[in-house]
């Protein structure tokens, strides 16, 4: 299967034109362009998992069923290629952006996003239809009823595990609501080399997975200084260090992050706590291609002092580029993708609905071959952890805290030194950003 993050360009031919869109339920933000003219919308994704097949099935086909005159081109960010800055410099302007909600502020700063409140008002869209946590996470980026994004679907934390590895070593499967410490101890039993193959029991993932679940900010409430060398981060880094010190965990050339390839392709990773949106497409592709992966899922690992809290509200969101010549058509496409009909269909295919509709939620993943017979209810067992106020500094400080974890894993740096160094770097970076 083609890699998720490589650049992809996919155009779908324009079909017969709509005669009119004036009879739509719920009013309209549409235009004559939406109704009749052939239009190609450029969709740019950034930190929002979307395979080529998902793009076709979850974006293109639902919109074209209603607006056959609208076609799409997809541009995925891929490493250093297609960064927002490079797109702007090249004059490649997307119409719609699909990004993780945590990056709304970054795109606002770059001038690549616009307030959608007037388009929402004109369309009659009811924001109360959406998950309250999702809307709260979005609205923090605006003032005076500004709205810079529309949520597409909810992400969800879970732990996928390879049953064959557990069976091979005679270890009992994980259970729902296990703590991070429980998972660590279970992972120790599965981290070993057998017949020349190195197995890793569990990959704890990046720092932000734990820090978000524990509701830790990067910056103090007054947004004056970073708070990376704090009690909360001390706790998380002490836990991470225990994972890194499991005999056999650190691989060749200091490898310490394993992730999806090790779990899905190499089949050498036994447990992987992850966002569901990051793996559901690949799991389904593998199942439909007849690839054998004997897996199941349980809840995201929890902290002992927060036994019912999973990860915070996180979701891919739609935004519109201010220089797009097709703003109303773009909004009409977005409006279609958050309709009851489309959300119900996407939810059945494993993209958890962002709507407050229990009837739709109960059908989650019901049409996925890969999820048949799986512990799907684990997705709904934990409450959302409280979110933190996001700042303009978070993107850079996230890099610094991630580098600190890497150094701790690869060089054996102690927790206190790692966090003290990270704090110093963060203070310098904040001063640099403020000066700009």
What labels describe this entry?
D-Maltodextrin-Binding Protein, domain 2, alpha/beta, 436 residues, 17 helices, disordered N terminus, 5-stranded mixed β-sheet
Question: Can you characterise this structure?
Answer:
This protein is an alpha/beta fold and 436 residues long. The protein has 2 domains: 32-155 and 314-361, D-Maltodextrin-Binding Protein, domain 2, CATH 3.40.190.10; 158-310 and 386-435, D-Maltodextrin-Binding Protein, domain 2, CATH 3.40.190.10. The chain is 38% helix and 12% strand. It is built from 17 helices and 10 strands. The chain has helices spanning 32-35, 52-66, 84-90, 104-109, 117-123, 132-139, 163-168, 180-190, 207-213, 231-244, 259-265, 280-288, 327-337, 340-348, 358-361, 394-411, 415-435; strands spanning 39-46, 70-76, 96-100, 150-151, 157-162, 192-194, 197-202, 269-275, 295-298, 316-320. The protein has a 5-stranded mixed beta sheet with strand order 2-1-3-10-4, sandwiched between helices. A hairpin with a 2-residue loop joins strand 6 (192-194) and strand 7. Helix 2 (52-66) packs across helix 13 (327-337) and helix 16 (394-411) packs antiparallel against helix 17 (415-435). The radius of gyration is 22 Å and the shape is globular. The model is unreliable at 1-30 (pLDDT under 50).
Write a brief structural summary.
It is built from 17 helices and ten strands. It is an alpha/beta fold.
Number of domains: 2
Q: Class of the largest domain, according to the CATH hierarchy?
A: Alpha Beta
What CATH architecture label of the largest domain applies? Answer: 3-Layer(aba) Sandwich
Q: Helicity level, as a percent range? A: 25-40%
Report the mean per-residue pLDDT as an integer: 89
H/E series, N to C? HEHEHEHHHEEHHEEHHHEHEEHHHHH
Distance between the termini: 42 Å
Describe the oligomeric state of these chains in a short phrase. Answer: single chain
Q: Supply the CATH superfamily name of the largest domain.
A: Periplasmic binding protein-like II
Biggest sheet architecture: 5 strands, mixed
Number of helices: 17
The chain-level structural class is: alpha/beta
Gyration radius, in Å: 22 Å
Strand fraction equals: 5-15%
């Amino acid at each position: 299967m083609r890699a998720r993050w490589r650049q992809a360009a996919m155009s779908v031919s324009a079909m017969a034109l709509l005669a009119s869109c004036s009879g739509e339920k719920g009013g309209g933000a549409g235009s004559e362009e939406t109704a009749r003219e052939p239009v190609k919308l450029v969709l740019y994704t950034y930190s929002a998992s979307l395979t080529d097949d998902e793009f076709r099935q979850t974006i293109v086909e639902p919109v074209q069923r209603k607006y056959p005159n609208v076609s799409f081109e997809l541009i995925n960010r891929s490493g250093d290629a297609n960064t927002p800055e490079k797109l702007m410099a090249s004059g490649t302007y997307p119409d719609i952006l699909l990004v993780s909600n945590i990056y709304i502020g970054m795109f606002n700063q770059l001038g690549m996003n616009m307030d959608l409140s007037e388009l929402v008002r004109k369309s009659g869209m009811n924001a109360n239809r959406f998950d309250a946590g999702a809307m709260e996470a979005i609205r923090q980026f605006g003032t005076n009823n500004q709205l810079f994004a529309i949520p597409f679907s909810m992400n969800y934390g879970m732990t996928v595990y390879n049953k064959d590895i557990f069976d091979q070593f005679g270890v009992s499967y994980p259970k729902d609501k296990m703590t991070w410490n429980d998972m660590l101890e279970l992972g120790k039993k599965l981290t070993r080399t057998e017949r020349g193959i190195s197995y890793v029991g569990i990959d704890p993932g990046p720092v932000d997975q734990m820090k978000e679940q524990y509701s830790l900010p990067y910056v103090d409430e007054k947004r004056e200084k970073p708070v990376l060398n704090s009690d909360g981060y001390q706790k998380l880094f002490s836990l991470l260090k225990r994972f890194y010190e499991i005999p056999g965990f650190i691989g060749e050339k200091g490898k310490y992050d394993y992730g999806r390839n090790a779990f899905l392709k190499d089949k050498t990773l036994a447990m992987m706590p992850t966002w569901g949106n990051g793996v559901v497409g690949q799991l389904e592709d593998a199942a439909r291609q007849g690839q054998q992966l004997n897996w199941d899922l349980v809840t995201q690992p929890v902290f002992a002092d927060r036994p019912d809290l999973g990860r915070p509200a996180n979701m891919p969101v739609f935004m519109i580029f201010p220089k797009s010549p097709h703003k109303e058509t773009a909004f009409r496409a977005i409006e279609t993708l958050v309709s009851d009909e489309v959300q119900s269909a996407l939810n059945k295919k494993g993209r958890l609905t962002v709507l407050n509709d229990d009837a739709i939620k109960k059908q989650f993943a019901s049409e996925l071959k890969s999820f048949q017979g799986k512990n799907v209810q684990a997705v709904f067992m934990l409450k959302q952890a409280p979110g933190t106020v996001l700042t303009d500094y978070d993107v850079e400080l996230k890099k610094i805290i991630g580098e600190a974890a890497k150094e701790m894993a690869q060089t054996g740096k102690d927790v206190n030194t790692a966090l003290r160094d990270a704090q110093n770097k963060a203070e310098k970076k904040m001063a640099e950003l403020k000066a700009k």
